Amino acid sequence: MAVNPFTSLLFASLLLLGPVAGTGACRKSAASVTKSQWSSLNSTVDGRLVSVVPSALWCQQRGGCTDAEWSSARFRLSNIPGAMDSYNYEQAYDGVGLVCLRNNTANCAKANVPLYSVEAQTVADVQAAVKFAAAHDIRLVVKSSGHDFLGRSTAADSLMIRMKNFKTVTFVNNFKGASTSMGSAVTVGPGLGTGDLYQLAKAAGKVLVIGSAATVAAAGGYVQGAGHSILSRKFGLAADNAIQFQVVVASGQLLTVNSQSNSDLFWAIRGGGAGSWGVIVSATFRTYGTFNSTIFVQTYATTSHQVAADLMQLHASHIFDYEATRTCQYFFLQKANVTAIPILTLYTIAINQTTPQTTALLAPFQGKALAISGVTLTSNVQLTSDTNDLVFFADDISGIDLITGSRLIPKETYQNRVSKIGPAYKTLLDVGTLNILGHLVAGGQVAANSGISSAVHPGWRTALVHLLMENPWTDGATITEQNHVATLWNDKQLAAIQKMTGDDSPGAAYSNEAAQVEKHPEETFFGPNYAKLKSIKTKYDPKGLFIVRNGVGSDDWNAQGTCRLH
Ligand SMILES: Cc1cc2nc3c(=O)[nH]c(=O)nc-3n(C[C@H](O)[C@H](O)[C@H](O)COP(=O)(O)OP(=O)(O)OC[C@H]3O[C@@H](n4cnc5c(N)ncnc54)[C@H](O)[C@@H]3O)c2cc1C
Ligand SMILES: *[C@@H]1O[C@H](CO)[C@@H](O)[C@H](O)[C@H]1NC(C)=O
Ligand SMILES: *[C@@H]1O[C@H](CO)[C@@H](O)[C@H](O)[C@H]1NC(C)=O
Ligand SMILES: *[C@@H]1O[C@H](CO)[C@@H](O)[C@H](O)[C@H]1NC(C)=O
Ligand SMILES: *[C@@H]1O[C@H](CO)[C@@H](O)[C@H](O)[C@H]1NC(C)=O
Ligand SMILES: *[C@@H]1O[C@H](CO)[C@@H](O)[C@H](O)[C@H]1NC(C)=O
C-alpha cells in the first residue's frame, strides 16, 4: 500500500515533539462531550450549531457538487462549513494514503475537520462558543473564509466558530476610537470578503489597504498576519492601517482593542499571526479618498527555463523603475505542468497613474525583454479605472491540493545581488516548481512605516518582494508526485532562495502565505517579536484556547494542538 508523503512530515513532527498522551496534559475530545451538553450550547446559540463534514462528504450527501461548485470559494464558503480552500487541509494523512476524496468518501469520517460549528450571528454566539470550549477543555478553531495556506482554520475533533455571517460595514469620516479624531475609517466584520469590500469602498468614494481576492477576510486572518495589498507601497500594510479591533478573548469577554485600550493586545494582533489572540468580531481600518489607477496585465512567453531565468534577471534589474510611483507589481512565473514552458504574467498596478504613464513606466523593461531571443509578448490588457475596480476577481479558486513556501526578499538583494536572481529562478524551475509568485508589495510606505510599534515582522520593513512558491498536486497524483511536492520547500526551494539572498539564516516570511513545514516558524514568522508576543499571549490566553499550527504559543503544544508539551 502506498505511503502518503505528508505522513512522514507529520510523523517527523510527532517524533520531534513527542506525544504526551497519558500525562494528563491533553485536552478532552470534543466527541466526549455529551449530546445534552451540545444541545444546551445549541439552544444558547439559537440553533446555530451544525455538524461538520469534509467537503467531499458534504457533496456526496447532497447528491454531488458540479466542478464549478467544487472549485468556487464563494460556493464552498456559503454552503459547506467544513470546507477549506486548500482541500488537502481537510485531510487526515494517515500513513497509507487513505484520504477523503470527491470520488472516494470511504475514509471521510477521519478527516481533519471540526465536529461541530457555531455559525455565529452575534457576539453572544461567539462568547457562548468560546466559554463552552474553555469549560469543556476542547480544541477550538476559528474560520472566516477558510483560505488559510497553513491549514490553521480547521482541526479534527474540535468546535469551530465560523464568522462568515459577520458582514457589517460602516464608513465614517471621523472615527472616534482611541482619540476623538482618528479620521476617515471603515469598520468591517470578518464575514465580508475583499471583493465586496472594494465595491462598497468605491460607492463610499474611498480606498483602503486590503488584499487581492474575492473572499479573503480583511478582518480575519489577513490583517493579523500583516496584510499586503496593491496599495501597500502607497499606504503601508493592512496592519499599519488597522486602528481598532473588537475581540472576544479566551475569558469570553468582548474587548475594545486600540492604542489606548488593551494596547498590548493591539500591538500583538497587528502582525502577531492569525488565530492566536481571540475572535475578531470587527476591525477598523483607515480609509483614503479614492482615485484612479491603471492596471496592465502582460503575458510574456518563453522557450526554456534558461530563457525564463534570463527574463527574470532582467526583470530584477528593472525593479527600481517602479519605485518613484510606488507601483505595485505581481510577477508570476508559472508552468501549467512539469513539461510545460514557463510563462511570465506581469500584473502592474500603477497607483494614481494614467495609461500613457504606465506604458512609459514599463517601456525600459519591455524593450529589453523583447530583445531576449525566445521572449514574446503574447497579451497586454490595460484598464484605467477607480482603484477599487482593479481587483476584480468575482471568485477565488478553491477545492485544490496546494501547499506553499515563501520568503520576504530584502531590497538589498535587488540592489547588490541581481546576478544571483536569474540562477535562482533557473534552479527553482529545474527542481520542478510550477508557480513562482513574486509580489512587489513592500518598500515605499511599508518601509517608511518602520517606526510603527506593532508585531509586524521587521523583515517586512527592509524587504522589497514577497516571493511565494505555490506547490499543487491533484487527487490523481501518484505517491511519487506527492512526495516530490511535500518535500520541495524544505529540500530544494528554500536553499535556492537563500543562495539568491546570500543569507542562510532562517530569514523572514509572511506567515499568511508560507510553509506549514517551516523549520523555524517562531523566528521566520515573528523574528525578534516572538518573546514579547508570547508573554502577551499568556496574559490574554493563559490556557492556550487559541492554538494554531506555527502560531504564537504553539511551540508548547503538539502539532494537532491537543496536548501540551510543557
Ligand atoms: C485567493 C487568495 C488571495 C490572497 N491574497 C492575498 C493578498 O492579496 N494579500 C495578503 O496579504 N494575503 C493574501 N492571501 C492570504 C490570506 O491573507 C490568508 O489566506 C489569510 O489567512 C486569510 O484569512 P481568512 O480569515 O480569510 O482565512 P481563514 O482560513 O478563515 O483564517 C485564517 C486564519 O485566521 C484565523 N481567523 C480567521 N478569522 C478570524 C477571526 N474573525 N478572528 C480571529 N482569528 C481568525 C483562523 O483561525 C486562521 O488561523 C490570499 C489568499 C488566497 C487564498
Ligand atoms: C441545533 O438546533 C437546530 C434548531 O433546533 C437544529 O436544526 C440543529 O440540527 C441542531 N444542531 C445539532 C448539531 O444538533
Ligand atoms: C502541459 O502543459 C502544456 C501547456 O499548457 C500542454 O500543452 C500539455 O498538454 C500539458 N502536458 C500534460 C502532460 O498535461
Ligand atoms: C494623484 O495624482 C494627482 C496629480 O498628480 C495628485 O494631485 C494627487 O494628490 C494624487 N493622489 C494621491 C492619492 O496620491
Ligand atoms: C477615472 O477613470 C474613469 C474610467 O476610465 C473615467 O471615466 C474617469 O473620468 C476617471 N476619473 C478621473 C478623475 O480621472
Ligand atoms: C476522481 O474524480 C475526479 C473528478 O471527476 C477525476 O478528475 C479524478 O481523476 C478522479 N480521481 C481518481 C483517483 O480516480
Automatic annotation (TrEMBL):
Its cofactor is FAD. SUPFAM superfamilies: FAD-binding/transporter-associated domain-like (SSF56176). Residues 110-290 form the FAD-binding PCMH-type domain. Belongs to the oxygen-dependent FAD-linked oxidoreductase family. Residues 1-25 form the signal peptide. Keywords: FAD, Flavoprotein, Oxidoreductase, Signal. One of its GO terms (molecular function) is oxidoreductase activity. It comes from the Eukaryota. This is FAD-binding domain-containing protein.
